[in-house]
Amino acid sequence: MQTLTQTLTITRPDDWHLHLRDGAALAAVLPDTARRFARAIVMPNLKPPVTTVAMAAAYRERIIAALSAGMNAPPPDRPKAGQANNMEPHSGEQPSPPREGRPGGVGHFTPLMTLYLTDNMPAAEIDAVKASGFVHGIKLYPAGATTNSDAGVSDLKKCAATLARMEQLGVPLLVHGEVTDPAVDIFDREAVFIDTVLMPLLRDFPALKVVLEHITTRDGIEFVRDSGVNVAGTLTAHHLLLNRNAIFAGGIRPHNYCLPVLKRESHRQALVAAAISGNPKFFLGTDSAPHGQSTKEAACGCAGCYTAHAGIELYAEAFEAVGALDKLEGFASFYGADYYGLPRNTDRITLLREAAAVPASLAYLDGDRLVPLRAGESVAWRLA
Ligand code: NCD
Ligand code: ZN
Asked: Which of 145, 185, 275, 381 has its Cβ near the most Cβ atoms within 10 Å?
């Protein structure tokens, strides 16, 4: 009997929510994303945060430099980018020319930059964003909500003029949707944020483009579904694949801890239903968020799951599990570009349905490794 490898070919996907970090960490993780995705919305929660177009331009240059350097010298335990996706490795420090149809792109990857909203971002910065052509959104982190969010917004009322300008110019607000009040149960923080922050925000700015990032609850799905076309949401692979039991399976599992935290199974099922619904309001955003092993496996471990090593493969698993592989391309490759008003990608990737082993850890920083999701186990799909 002949066994055929099952393959899945789709338009090259984009990642609409990604943490790339900076410096050596950036160099270590960027090839994983660039191998799979054409573009990614790059989160601005560096230290200090990226709060101006000028800072975003400099960060973008560092990403582009890391990309071209990384094509020549990948970390020792990762495959060479050139081998993994048949790109011609090139020599020297010169970035490769932009590919056709990807203005500003380098090789296979274009970083889409964001700014970090603070209480005192001037409205004029939004005009600079619009004029830049490379900043695609403004990120709202409620102060203290998550990793590097100390400089976040304390009260959205302070941002009224800036939000009004965003609404006028069509610049999306990308939202970490959790209240930070320690009196609110951690599993309720997304739902409470929707009621107490997002609903009033959209009453004040009804045409504001809002992306509710990394939705984790049925409440978040219903809010996005029932709002206008200006409101969309991203879904991570780990929230589609795991429920909160994964944080406590036989002991505490710091590598399954992220924010917003995993929720109960009925919420996971609501996320999966939205992802496979074909509703263009829901699209792919990995929220891949690397932290060194020593900072995850600690008495007070950092929030964030690293998923970029299997950034599209994990979604293929989640969609296959419910018999909806035919819905993956729209979710991963079309709807996000449409929402952001960018052209859809034209090249394609192929996934093979073959188990791919995930190493116990990956190279990251000098003296600190990176433990990816599924470490020591396998993912059911691999990139051809
Ligand atoms: C993110 C990080 O580490 O930067 N962590 C996470 O758990 N997702 C920040 C964030 O998106 O909340
Ligand atoms: Zn994030």
From this structure: 275
